[in-house]
């Protein structure tokens, strides 16, 4: 399909790469156009294949993911890079963002959530894994000034969302099902489903995935 997001995967662990590719190939929104096991190859493939999004590991042979991200962005600023890693060190996070990465995700991210992040980043969003977001924002508020303002604008625009609905929306964005939301908030699954339905109506979207994507794009998370 012409409207599928062209994705380049960069991961040196074959088992993880094969697993992710299998998941992505089942998606109606992604087209995996290339794979690389090291940073140098990733830079070369990015030049020839011209992906829209690159999913980049950090701990790569030959050239690490941060350096590869920098070179890819220098050659083509329009390519979006999502760092997918097990590294949560603050220096590596900041180095990746300084190199031009649009998102920083941990490898334990839920699959459906990663798919939403890829779509949102393609459309211009900046995203940080919740596990590291607060730390980075607190120490570097100027970098995310626009997103903070966007969050305020989102809340003003959707002031009819209740505090509970904001809680539920955040859990939806994190990829939780209705039953998981019910357990986390100690409410019934029927109530959780009702909250999700209300959120979908108030955000004027068709389903929970679109609600999550809109929340990410507008900076609610």
Q: How would you describe this structure to a colleague?
A:
This protein has 2 domains: 135 residues, Response regulator (Rossmann fold); 73 residues, Arc Repressor Mutant, subunit A. Helices cover 56% and strands 13% of the residues. The protein is globular. With 221 residues, it is α/β, with parallel strands linked by helices. The longest helix has 14 residues. It has a 6-stranded parallel β-sheet with strand order 2-1-3-4-5-6, with helices on both faces. Helix 2 packs parallel to helix 3 and helix 3 packs parallel to helix 4. The mean pLDDT is 85. The chain has 11 helices and 6 strands.
Keyword list:
single chain; 221 residues; alpha/beta; Rossmann fold; Arc Repressor Mutant, subunit A; 2 domains; 6-stranded parallel β-sheet; 6 strands
CATH topology of the largest domain: Rossmann fold
**Cα end-to-end separation:** 30 Å
The unreliable regions are none
Number of strands: 6
SSE order, as H and E? Answer: EHEHEHEHEHEHHHHHH
The CATH class of the largest domain, by name, is Alpha Beta
User: How many structural domains does the protein architecture include?
Assistant: 2
Largest sheet: 6 strands, parallel
Principal-axis shape equals: globular
Helix content: 55-70%
- Number of helices in the DSSP assignment: 11
Oligomeric state of shown chains: single chain
| The CATH homologous superfamily of the largest domain | Response regulator
Structural class: alpha/beta
Radius of gyration from CA coordinates: 18 Å
């Amino acid at each position: 399909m012409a409207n599928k997001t062209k994705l380049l995967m960069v991961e040196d662990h074959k088992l993880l790469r094969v697993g992710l590719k299998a998941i992505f190939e089942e998606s109606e929104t992604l087209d995996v156009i290339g794979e690389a096991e090291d940073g140098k190859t990733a830079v070369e493939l990015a030049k020839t294949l011209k992906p829209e999004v690159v999913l980049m590991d950090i701990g790569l042979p030959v050239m690490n993911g941060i350096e590869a991200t920098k070179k890819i962005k220098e050659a083509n600023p329009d390519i979006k890079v999502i760092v997918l890693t097990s590294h949560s060190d603050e220096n590596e996070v900041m180095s990746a963002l300084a190199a031009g990465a649009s998102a920083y995700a941990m490898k334990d991210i839920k699959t459906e959530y990663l798919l939403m992040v890829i779509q949102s980043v393609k459309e211009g969003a900046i995203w940080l894994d919740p596990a590291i977001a607060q730390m980075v924002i607190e120490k570097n508020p100027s970098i995310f000034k626009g997103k903070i303002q966007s969050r305020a604008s989102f809340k003003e625009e959707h002031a009819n969302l209740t505090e509970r609905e904001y809680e539920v929306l955040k859990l939806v964005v994190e990829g939780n099902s209705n039953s998981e939301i019910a357990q986390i908030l100690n409410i019934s699954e029927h109530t959780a489903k009702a909250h999700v339905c209300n959120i979908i109506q108030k955000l004027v979207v068709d389903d929970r995935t679109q609600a999550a994507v809109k929340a990410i794009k507008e900076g609610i998370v």
